[in-house]
Write a structure and sequence with these properties.
This protein has 228 residues and is an all-beta fold. Helix content is 0%, strand content 60%. The protein is built from no helices and 20 strands. It has a five-stranded mixed sheet, with no helix packed on it. The chain has a five-stranded antiparallel sheet with strand order 15-14-18-19-20, with no helix packed on it. It has a four-stranded antiparallel sheet with strand order 8-7-10-11, with no helix packed on it. 18% of the residues are buried.
């Protein structure tokens, strides 16, 4: 504080009978009993609730992921995590999955709650995976051709094509192709085709994360073997 003399000090102090002091500087007054008091923060329900995924971007099969929830509220907010089927997963602002797979895909809800109210927010988790061939097999048919089956899995569900000696095989009078979905991630394809002893048959599956293929070739016993 500046070193004013007694005559130069711009303020004065009074003390009343009850010991209550009053300070005056210019035209502004403060009661000493109020000095140092903190304003009490307003209490309210959770608001500005947000949910995020870390790391952001694609969630790959087998990788760890954390879901994080934050909000404003007073008193302190409690967080609870739920799956879309109502299953309670965890309490606290973060939900961590150490090794993701397809069962972890889906909608997750964060509920923020205190004594004044609650708020919900959600985030979609979509676990991605490049195509994998899980099953492949060929047998000779009674009509002299072959019947093959190829099952692939991935997320998004892969598209599947058959190639005969390097050329795509469309459905025709010489070949028939049938497909069926397997769960949420798989596709199974059947092909019946007339194949010469020099033809090779290939199952190729693709999604935006990659592709995989299996090669079928004839052997003298009229059964097919496969090669990667």
């Amino acid at each position: 504080m500046p070193g004013w003399s007694q005559e130069e000090k711009p303020g004065w102090c009074e003390t009343g009978q009850g010991g209550e002091g009053k300070l005056k500087f210019g035209e502004v007054e403060w009661n000493q009993e109020k000095v140092g008091q903190k304003r009490e923060k307003k209490q309210d329900a959770p608001k500005n609730l947000s949910v995020s995924v870390s790391p952001s971007g694609l969630v790959m099969w087998g990788s760890p992921v954390s879901l994080n929830c934050s909000s404003d509220g007073n008193p302190a907010v409690n967080y609870t995590w739920y799956r879309e089927n109502g299953e309670q997963m965890e309490t606290g602002p973060s939900l961590t999955i150490t090794e993701t797979d397809d069962t972890h895909s889906g909608l997750y809800y964060c509920r923020a709650q205190n004594q004044h109210g609650a708020q919900n927010s959600s985030v979609q988790l979509d676990v991605q995976d490049a195509p994998q061939t899980l099953f492949f097999h060929c047998n000779s048919s009674s009509e002299g051709g072959i019947v093959c089956v190829c099952e692939v899995h991935g997320r998004p569900v892969p598209k599947l094509e058959w190639h005969l000696s390097g050329e795509a095989v469309p459905p025709s009078e010489n070949s028939s192709i049938r497909e069926e979905f397997v769960g949420r991630t798989g596709l199974r394809s059947f092909i019946s085709i007339h194949q010469s002893r020099t033809d090779t048959l290939q199952c190729i599956s693709t999604n935006r994360l990659g592709s995989t293929s299996k090669l079928f070739y004839p052997v003298p016993t009229h059964h097919c073997s496969s090669a990667g």
